[in-house]
Amino acid sequence: MFIPFLPPERPVILIFDGHASHLNFATVKEAIKHDVIILKLPSNSMHVLQPLDVGVYGPVKTAWENILVWFAQQNLGMPLNKELFPSLLKSLWQSNCFSAGNIKAGFKRCGVMPWDPTQIPPSVYELSGSSTSNADVLSVPSTSSADVPSSSTDDPPSLL
């Protein structure tokens, strides 16, 4: 569980993709106990609403494709084998895809931090089949929203 690694400030938001295997009663119970809000994202919206999908995994996919194209151009007809794979993976790791800037940008573009629901077009929610709300809150701690300090920085929330 990630709770021991959280800072003392509460509440904390845990963004949840909605897959049933990622959540159980014990997790919800612990979340309530530790003032953690579990936010369920609408189905089929991860590519738009999940900060790491938006800020990191997209750039990683593009960089990896570019590395593979470069490899293929430099090594016509040569297969990518187990001996060569680590060096290409090292190139990916050394790219700026995993930078703090990309991670922060993902949270910002998803409207998570700073909070900005206008970042996501309404059509995203229509596609997900969600007709009542933009996301389902599974666990709401007793802290009122008035007690939550506002942040003027672009730092992402402390999730993990």
From TrEMBL:
This is DDE-1 domain-containing protein. It comes from Acanthosepion pharaonis. Residues 8-65 form the DDE-1 domain. GO terms for molecular function: nucleic acid binding. It comes from the Eukaryota. Residues 126-160 are annotated as: Disordered. Residues 139-160 have a biased composition (Low complexity). InterPro entries: DDE_SF_endonuclease_dom.
